[in-house]
Write a structure and sequence with these properties.
Peptidase_S1_PA; 6-stranded antiparallel barrel; alpha+beta; transmembrane; globular; 25 strands; S1 family peptidase; GMP Synthetase, Chain A, domain 3; disulfide bond; 4 domains
Length: 456
């Protein structure tokens, strides 16, 4: 009975090892067949693909039959539609459809009515695609009378305008990700851009008017550059020309703290529900989700429209700092409320709009494994960016050195690479060899016992 059990265990182990070899071989074959030679080292997520699918459907179906799109919790694109016929078309296209009551045309009409009302500093509104509402927020500085008047206006628009009071105050975050300083205060450098002949820092417009001189240290010993163009309020972006005209090595990297940086490979537009990262000279690297688009904020200094609303925290000094996702540049920090202890809402100036208005393009890195290319043009999207040590400060010439931030273990465990398949093959081979060795050892011992019993 004991020998029978041993034989059964050995047989099962051999079968499992052979099955593992077959499975590992299949995984390696599929990975080699599907992965291009210049695939990014950083695991790719589906947020950009889902966003592109949703945006394409909304564009084709129109504002009267749709009400925005977002990335669902499962990573699939979701499109808000106003009727079942349109919902069927969305589902046939491979996206999820949510039937809502109000179209995008109605939502934007509501925001136009709010914008035409008397301006109330400390208020903000944005289109919440998921709830099919226009959300109006008032901070702690808004008086009871002003809030009551705004509530009456919202009631006249319709029941899809939701009023909310929020803590703190909506302010610009003057005072990224490296700090730049001037007499106006402290901000964070955003992204490096170029007009083809000179290089610039694209940062927030409220950081300082045209002519502001920026330094990279508190002593004023290292001049970074001078603000040569910008827009605030209305928009919130500005252009700081480097003092020597060049961004230097590491221009495609944004600092994230701890001597590390992220390579930026392109520029794009975010989607509601997408996970994003923000870096700033005060609070460092923070992450969160895009909660709304086309947001309007009534700062004390003036009204800014067309912003990206997120639940990422920010603090004074983070203004102008970069927001990105998967190595793609999305925007620069404008303002918000709260802090990084309690959380809050932060708004960002979209990058494509700012670059188009300023006539510049992004200084971006080529994808890993690809030949060097020209800087990404306006609106172009790049592959996922890789973290690397040595993020460059504004005006610095320190290159990005060292290996990619993705470790060997993360590459081996990434199911899209050949690593997992090789691990399965190696483990199965070891198991098969072990079972053969155990059987041979048992046969050798049995022969010795037989020999001893036969010949004494």
């Amino acid at each position: 009975m004991r020998h029978a059990r041993r034989r059964m265990v050995r047989r099962v182990a051999r079968l499992a090892a052979v099955g593992g070899l077959l499975l590992g071989g299949t995984m390696v074959t599929r990975a080699v067949a599907s992965e291009p030679p210049d695939a990014p080292a950083v695991p790719y997520t589906s947020a950009r693909a889902a966003s592109g699918t949703g945006a394409g459907l909304v564009s084709r179906l129109g504002a009267d039959r749709t009400a925005g799109h977002w990335v669902g919790s499962d990573g699939r694109p979701v499109v808000a539609v106003t009727d079942e016929g349109t919902a069927a078309r969305v589902r046939r296209a491979g996206a999820e459809a949510k039937v809502v009551r109000h179209s995008m045309a109605e939502l934007k009409s509501a925001t136009e009515a709010l914008r035409s009302a008397p301006r109330v500093p400390g208020t903000a509104w944005a289109l919440d695609y998921r709830s099919n509402e226009v959300v109006v927020r008032g901070d702690s500085t808004v008086s009871r009378d002003d809030w009551s008047r705004l509530t009456d206006i919202a009631s006249g628009i319709g029941g899809f305008v939701r009023m909310e009071r929020t803590e703190g105050a909506f302010t610009t975050r003057l005072n990224g990700a490296e700090p730049i300083l001037s007499t106006a205060g402290r901000c964070s450098a955003g992204f490096n851009v170029t007009d083809g002949s000179d290089d610039f820092i694209l940062t927030a417009g409220h950081c300082g008017p045209t002519g502001s001189v920026w330094f990279g240290d508190e002593g004023g010993d290292r001049q970074v550059g001078r603000t040569v163009a910008g827009s605030f309020p209305g928009d919130d972006f500005s252009l700081v020309e480097y003092a020597d005209g060049e961004a230097g090595e590491g221009a495609e990297v944004v600092a994230v703290g701890g001597g590390k940086g992220v390579r930026i490979t392109g520029v794009g537009e975010p989607a509601v529900g997408q996970r994003v990262f923000r870096s700033g000279s005060t609070s460092g690297l923070r992450d969160g989700r895009v909660t709304a688009l086309e947001a309007t904020v009534n700062y004390p200094e003036g009204t800014v429209t067309g912003l990206i609303e997120t639940d990422v925290c920010a603090e004074p000094g983070d203004s102008g700092g970069p927001m990105f996702s998967e190595g793609v540049a999305l925007g620069v920090t404008s303002g918000g409320n709260g802090d990084c202890d309690k959380g809050g809402t932060t708004f960002f100036q979209p990058l494509p709009e700012a670059m188009e208005a300023l006539g510049v393009r992004l200084l971006a890195a080529a994808r890993e494994g690809a030949a060097p290319s020209a800087p990404a043009a306006n609106g172009g999207e790049g592959a996922g960016g890789a973290t690397a040590p040595g993020g460059a400060a504004p005006g610095a010439t320190a290159p990005v050195t060292g290996v990619d931030g993705s470790t060997l273990l993360s590459r081996l465990t990434d199911r899209r690479n050949v690593g997992p398949g090789l691990l399965v093959v190696a483990g199965s081979t070891v198991a098969l060899v072990a079972t053969r060795w155990i059987r041979a050892e048992q046969d050798r011992k049995a022969y010795r016992r037989h020999y001893s019993a036969t010949w004494g």
